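REVIEWER CHECKLIST
Item 1: Sequence provided? yes
Item 2: Single chain? yes
Item 3: Sequence as submitted:
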Amino acid sequence: MTKHKIGIESVDNLNSALVDIFDKITNTGAGASSTGNNFEQTIYTLLKSGLSGFVFVSNKQWRQKGGIFEEYAKRAMKNNFDFSDLLVPSDGKFVYNRIIVENPNSTQRWPDSLVIFNGIGLPIEIKSTKTDRIVWNGGLPRFDAIYIFNCWGIPRTTTFLGQDVITQEVRKILMDAERHEKALLNKVKTGDERWEYYSRPMYLGNEKYFKSELTVTQREERVKDFIINLPWNIYGQVVNFS
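Item 4: Structure as written out by the authors:
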């Protein structure tokens, strides 16, 4: 079995490099005026340039049936990013023990990016809107997950952890509402196979993220504290978000 290697040089070096990247995202407003996919590409560029020795893996390569990442991709689809018990992907020429994955679970599912080091994945979600408000669609913020929010209408960019914008209590209430609706809809029968009713959960966030400069700063500092203390192992880091 090919063993996972310590990444850049050490865990501390990796965490410091990530903090530097997040400083560039927020302090320099890198790509803040860019919209949608263009802003995502700005983030990928910063990750690729800031994480020396890491290899960028496209969504197509990651999800290729029969490809070297197939077992990783299957596990990631369950929102489990602990790959430490799997063989390190290798194409015979290169061992992919340090990678940045683009849209691991497709473009429509969380997360937008995944940094994998030492067999452990760190999910990063990228939100981009014109107004200072996030529509979460069918996926609520997750605790111990990192979010990058670009409000290109201002333009400004900030970062936060899932637990900074929602409590476990509120998260449960909203998810219970979704489950209740689905249970009701399962009882709906039209008697005509040509028709059915499709319900899509839509979580609406009413918070204005740039309303308080103090809150913005505090949340960004918590993200950096969170990153600098990442152990990149299953004992001190959340890896299963299912």
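Item 5: Key structural point noted by reviewer: Confidence is low (pLDDT under 50) at residues 1-7.
Item 6: Recommendation: ____
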